[in-house]
Amino acid sequence: MKRIGVFTSGGDAQGMNAAVRAVVRMALDKDLEVYAIYEGYQGMVDGGHKIRPIAWTDVGGILQKGGTAIGSARCAQFRERAGRLQAARNLLEHEIEALVVIGGDGSLTGAQLLYTEWAGLVNELVENGQISQELANRHQHLAIAGIIGSIDNDMYGSDVTTGSDTALHRIVEATDAISSTAASHQRIFVVEVMGRRCGYLALMGAMAGGADWVFIPENPPDMDNWEDKMCQVMHLGREAGRRDIIVVVAEGAQDRHGKPITSSYIKEVLESRLGEDTRITVLGHVQRGGAPSAFDRNLSTLLGAAAVDQLLAAQPDEKPFVMGIRANKITRTPLDEALARTRSVAEASAARDFKRALQLRGSSFNESFDIVRTMVRALPHPPTPGQRRMRIAVMNAGGPAPGMNTAVRTAVRLGTDKGHIMLGVSNGFHGLIEGDIREMDWMSVHGWASQGGAEMGTNRYVPKGSDFYAIARNLEAHQVDGLLLIGGWSGYESVLKMMQNRSTFPANNIPIVCIPASINNNLPGAELSIGADTALNNIVSAVDKIKQSAVASRRVFVVEVMGRNCGYLALMSALATGAERVYIGEEGIRSSDLIEDVKQLAAGFSKGKRLGLVIRNESANKVYTTSFIRALFEEEAGDLFDVREAILGHLQQGGDPSPFDRILATRLAAHALNHLEKQIEEGDIACACLGQVGGALVFTDMEDVPRLFDMEKQRPKKQWWMELRSVARILAKPAPH
Ligand code: ADP
Description:
By secondary structure, the chain is of the alpha/beta class.
């Protein structure tokens, strides 16, 4: 294969640029020629100047931009065979042998059709005398790889699609902002989000925003008098002290009979029955706009790289595949299968077979719906008479991680709803030692879903000596049956120490579940920890600004990021910002590397480069500090460029949690609580850490932690993201000449 084409089509989605950049650079790196097809299928049908070569530097500086730099369009002609014939002619004219299509299900349906008809179209062009038989012989097949660009996350073939994480950012920014005004005036807000057939954005937006009610197309209210039920809950919520009320509705929401549930109808119901001032906010295109989130940039980059690999590895007559992600692994699914499965959800929904529609959405979607359904209650279910009311303590420990509050809120609400008594421990292990423990009720965590920081306090103190006696005494005094710890490594380490003291202090014989919360993402038994995504977004938006500050000067920035001994934040932020070089402790830094890097930068600047970016993890090397690297680069650069250092510091730990972290925190806390409940029921006192591993939520026995974890470096022995270094390295290469 020599030449490929890439295009974006249909509704634009944030992250499309990252995908285009990755496709172009990975393909050029593999010695392919790359043509961009501007304005989607319209460009393919129009041909001429709309199909032209695209170079390495053409995709510079687009990573952080929303929309799509190569344009997108809807094209009616392509829906007709005549249009596709014209498109085929234009592709053949440029001898394009393979395509990467980035778009939603409509665009991908078009691509599947083009593939299926290809041989027929080529023959027809020969018969019409529009192309030679010889050209036709060389192009009997068209290879296609698809990337789903869709903010709705409405397609089978990928857990998440390019753009959906950023759209959730926009939704959560809006609901966070609306909550404060709603609370001030005691108003109700109905927030309408995108999603004609798919309630993903509405459901996850409601979960992350701590909304009070949600309507989605695939799971209509299960009763005909849902209006009564909703109004009753809102009324009770007000009585319980809720000041702000937010109802999230997907634009395609419907009732069980298929009748649309519109935002204006909801407003009418709330106003007429409750007499409450109700306002509507339709988010509309805001959801498609703005800079892509760190997650969308990296997801799209990896999918773009994988699409090129897929085309290169394709057999001559291989059918199209769509690239996706499951857990943190790139997957591929036959495009026809992905389209058929996507259609079946829409069909089930249209036929009002909601059970099937939900089932097709997958188990985590359903589980999320159940969690939201409980969280929106005005008050918990009262305990069942005669049930065992367990006493479950919740605490934070370790450095602050955005999302800790979200996890506490989930645990407290779901626990009290199950009839248990939830105890909050303040200030990490200090609180457990000093007996700073109190019962938490439903409303005590109101508004915590969106709050950064750690309301209950947290610190890195690890208990020692007589502390264990105090802990045991307090656990006994409060009759704690089980403990949920939300935190970082010092929290995990403390639990390990409590386990070692069990024979001396029998009160420690209770089950403990740790859930990973640390911006460093360095915890055992978890691929991602709560807070890391927020920190990554904080870094990425800071670096975007730093880069913008340097428009006119020839400058290299050396940016130092947190992470302690774990290079996750450094590598992922480098990937998301297009940094030339990243220094992480896992690889170490050698003086020869530094010299080589400064030479490469100098070569780039001497050819007209204007901006350089290097990211260094704070503990990458004791001697080659950020200041050292800045001084060395500056000295070696001479007049070619100047160098500035930026140590991002604590802004990385701050801010409200990102939607991703809120969703992760909610799911982890819900699972941990169920597990603890079961353990207490069965008298099982094993301690475990919970985390997302390979797409599932998995419990790892605490006893296994010393085997999996590098105690000295405080990071897992095996880190999945280390594999991503090669992609980062290729994309950051200087432009070939
Ligand atoms: P999206 O890709 O975001 O779902 P659309 O559904 O508007 O957006 O599709 C984008 C373009 O893909 C359409 O304008 C059309 O050119 C092409 N397309 C969509 N559906 C088909 C189809 N069934 N057959 C051929 N082309 C299609």
